[in-house]
Amino acid sequence: MNHHNAIGTKNDKPNTKDGLKRIRTLILYTALVASVSVLLYKVYLSYGKAITGYGEDWESLAILDTKHPDSLSGGDLTHFKFGNISFEQEPYNLHWRLSALFDHGDGVFERPFKEAKSFNEKNISDGLGPLYNAKSCAACHVADGRAAAPSMERGFEGVLFRVSIPGKGKHGGPKHHPVYGGQLADQANTGYDPEVKLKMDYQLIPGQYPDGTPYTLRKPIYDLSETYYGPLGDDAMLSPRIASAVIGMGLLDAIDSTDILKNADPDDANNDGISGKVNMVWDVEAGKLAVGKYGWKAETPTLRQQIADAAVNDIGISSSLFPDQSCGDEQQDCKDAQHGTVGDPYEMMEEQINQLLVYLEFLAVPARDPVNHPQALLGEKLFKESNCNACHTDTWTTGNKHRQRRLRNQVIHPYTDLLLHDMGEGLADNRPTFDATGTEWRTPPLWGIGMSARVNGHTDFLHDGRARNLEEAILWHDGEAKAAKEAFMNLKKSDREALLAFLRSL
Prior knowledge:
This protein is of the alpha+beta class.
């Protein structure tokens, strides 16, 4: 017997075990190389490009260098995607870590919270109410835009009523109503009554320009007599508020408070008839007074506090900033209700607050468009000649200390001074808020205002939505803004149209 041949024949057979081993080794090696490559790429993104201060590929932002500087309303956070999703855009080439948080924050913003019914059904959406105005952020800020004016036909989603009684509350803020707290809830969980059933109508007010052109304004008349926990009382002070667009909020947060203070002129020292003042409000995390930036009366100092304030008052969701439910002192059933805090100390987890914070910090601002149209350029000139920019400050440079480096040192065009101004008795809510009197309101930003019709399908403006278009919003101006309004009214019709065209370009 030829042993060599026998052995050779045996060795020529394929070794299945060795083949599988080689395949497994190859797969593991490939996976290892891929994992290391991804890790190195992430390190490169996070640190290798950190010399820019952003960890981003600035070449992809080159599109902004090709645009007219005046079109970059949000600086590097400007985008050029126009249409019904124009307020929902992430800025170009956001760092991958922030982009992931942005997406998660968008989910929290859109997600309806649910009633916490039992300890066994706890999830991150539980905790709604028991008294509330909306089930989600997006229910009021539809497509991240502004809510429409309320009416008996349309309903009241997107509008709320702040309530207080005469006197100062804790830290100098409004004094809460003993039964209804600081905000009226028109919705409630199963087994609970809402605080109020809202009713309203509009009073039409005719007017006429000096050139004879007629116009009609509308004034809301509210009926809040149908309450479920007793009468409000004759001393109750009420203030209706419409949900605003939430674009560019991070950029406003990045404006240095010292710069806002520099622009304040509470005693009208320069005798220009404009006496903008800062609203010094309570910062719950810092434990001290700070410059107010957010809200119709600049009653909130930081974006993080704005998020938590809206969560607890509008949706009934507690957080580390506001651990107690928004119940009146005498609403014991509300205080005793099942809350969604099982497994977590608060209904809104810190992770969710941070996700929402990143989302709102980086919601990009649509570009001004058109920026070179002759009619809009004429309107811009008339806007300044009418002294509208005395309050609607066009340009700011953000500070260099914000936690998000992408928001630092940005030249932006929000058209607001973030100060309080007396707007006259016609717009007064007669409800003081910290340093804001009943006739004073914060100058609202104008960026993106021309996109409102496309994003939200309406052009309702001002704090309660009474103005049906930009023209009516101007005509409601009074007090410190009376001279600017009269300058607009005295323009010839074609010039008024030019000024409105400029506003629609923002």
